[in-house]
Input
Amino acid sequence: MNGWIAIYNSAMHYAYLTPLTLTILNTAQLPSSLGVTFFAQSLAGRRSPFIVAGVISGAAIIGWVLTPATLEPFWAVLLGASSALVFTLGIALPPLMAGPERVARLTGVTLSLNYCVAFVGPFLGGELWDLFHLPFLAFLPVAIASLLLIILGALLPPRSAFGLLSRLSDTSELDPAIPITPSL
Output
């Protein structure tokens, strides 16, 4: 997103919005990341945060290209917050999904996929824009990623499949104030 906002705004004659929008997009990631850390134990391994983040980011991309430009900073808040949520929860998945001997490898694969998508998405968006001469197509990879996030979130095994509940009950770090229930 960061790479296309300035060029998109310039092409759409909204260059004056670029500094505010980029600041909001990147700043919105901080409270989202911090907020997730306070609830990480109860969110980790659940389907719903991924689905919700996919819906929010998909709606924000649609809103970005279909609503008046003055709403762009609002959509940037949603995109920044949802992307930070996905990144933080995605980092939590490898320890839940793999045995201790495979966590490092799965974490490496997860991070590699994240960086690959971060490179390929803007590349494809630029190619689509150049091919069809439609600036909004630069954001199509983000819309597709949002849809994939919803689908993959729905396909995530139930939290109970990770054995998280039994592992947490065996640790002294379990906080009784945080309810942990095997649900979405």
Observations:
- The chain is about 70% helix and 0% strand.
